Amino acid sequence: SNSFQPYQTQAGDALDLIEIGSKSAENMFAEAQAANTMMTWILRLVGFLMMLFGLLMVFQPLVVLADVLPLLGNLLGMGLFAFAAVVAAALSLVTIAIAWLVYRPVLGVALIAVAIAAIVGLIMLGRKRKAAAA
Fold it and tell me: What phi and psi, each to the nearest 5 degrees, are found at residue 29?
């Protein structure tokens, strides 16, 4: 037939892809897959950055209090940035892992394990520093 019709997937969805020029179906699917993968990684990065900046804003009052002594404020600011980055990374992994649990349970569980290891490592580091300071 000389008309455009949606491609029916095995999952029951209909895909409508159209591009200028002559391209094979395989090329169109590969390009759509690559675009989808790129968008997924961009959204993951945006989510991580939003979580990081949110955590930094939550801890910002502590930095302002420590700014009474300029050096202390700068050191606390750097330390809280590192702390917020690790916590944001762990929480981002948990968020991504929960989304993966439905589609790829093994990958989802592995990501949760990595996030839990990061959180446990952070807690142990905090306890070790507290014990060294005492």
Answer: -65, -40
